[in-house]
Amino acid sequence: MPTLNAAYSEAEAIALEAAALGRLSPEQAEVLRSFFAELEKNALAVYQAARLVASHTYDRQEIAKFWKGEAELAAHARKQLNLLKRSLALGWKQICSPVTRIRKPRPKRS
């Protein structure tokens, strides 16, 4: 199964460019669409392979350990996708704004 690192980098670059420009070209949209379709296909393949492996694992503790690892991998992948979605939603200017907001310290209550 091919890794998605290069495709993820390309999708991220497109998302950041689109956020900076405030628009997404049809070509960029198609690249993102195909990236997410390939990601979904790979996730389904991993899920089906995991089910096959789990069906051959009879010890309950081994099954629990296996699915815990799979859940952690899925959570990490979901976190990366949510970061990509947020960068699209918020816009590059809001993410990389050079001006930071400085908060004044709150007075202590007696």
Q: What do you see in this structure?
A:
This protein is mostly helical and 110 residues long. The chain contains 4 helices and no strands. It has one domain. The protein is flat and about 55 Å long.
Total DSSP E strands = 0
Measured as a percent range, the helix fraction is: over 70%
How many domains, as an integer? 1
Head-to-tail CA distance between termini: 63 Å
Largest sheet: none
Mean pLDDT: 76
H/I helix tally: 4
Encode the helix/strand succession as letters: HHHH
Rg, alpha carbons: 20 Å
Strand percentage lies at: under 5%
Sequence stretches where pLDDT stays below 50 over 5 or more residues: none
What spatial form do the alpha-carbon principal axes imply? Answer: flat
Structural class: mainly alpha
